[in-house]
Amino acid sequence: MKHLKTWLLTFSIIVVFGLGAVAGLVYFVDPFFQYHKPLDGFPYVVDHQVNMNPGLAKNMDYDSVLLGSSMTVSFNTDWFQEVMGLTTQKLSYNGAYPKDQANIMEIVFEAKGKEVKQVFLGIDELNYSGDINQTKFEIPEYLYDNNCFNDIKYLLNKDVVLDYILRAAADPKDKSEWNMIYKPWWQDEHYQKALVLMYFEPVEEAEEIPDTQLFLEGIEENLKVNILPYIEAHPETKFTVFYPPYSILYWYNVNREKGLDAVIEKYRYMSTRLLEYENVELYFFQNQEEIICNLNNYADYTHYHGSICRYMVECFGNGECQVTMDNLEEELEKLYQLALNYDYEAIWDDWYN
Question: Which domains can be identified in the chain, with CATH numbers?
Fold first, then answer.
């Protein structure tokens, strides 16, 4: 019996020591940046937006943030420094809903010692009319809250140890570039009309025109709950809101769904509400014909090349493509006429040109 107790005690000590060592390793390396900035020289792999964004928001050095969906992942954050002198942290969520933006803005504005000069927010109108609590992926609350007692799910997580510490250390060539975290897998050769058309599947034609009012009610609620409170609470911060330039094929689908009037009205409503605030600037890229009608700018019918992102950053710096209440109707009409009257059938003519 004495030997059994001794064995159990020894085993317990070994287990506790082992768990403590694992937790200590995770805390020291901190691959999700929950406790400190990245260690110099460690080859961090930054590829999990939901798990890593809260830590990046808490502990990285920045004075501006880039928020949005996969429409923002091809931005190089060095461009913001070059054009506007801003140290920008990318905090993208693929397929982001307004609640995703609210979740991360809550952390950004609560982070100690952060002076947030500017928020760059890409808005996808399609995702702004849904449920106000909907997120694209399930949120791991233990990474988003300030409760240290539930951090055990992070500190003793085998996937964190194996995939983001041991594997990263063993294969450092896969480390992420800090200015291009979350970058898409597409290479330059994937941005071409032939490939876009090869994989594009038009939606089925709708028989009825959608009820615009239903969309507007959802948009109003999402703005009121998830976006406007942060704009109102931080008048010292400039919110640069932009509508990304989907390709002309997106508008082909919108027309097939008989939704053009509804989408234009959604942009009108969102823009009008946002422009009520003095600390909001609005940029409209959806009607840039030279961009959206050139499918060689795209890897699919919505995702554009990094050169388009560079152009948008330059616009943020010089004011080109900015929309105000004075020119909003003009810009919306330009988009409406382009989307309504474009020769869509000609897209498939001369396929490889």
Answer: 62-147+178-348 (3.40.50)
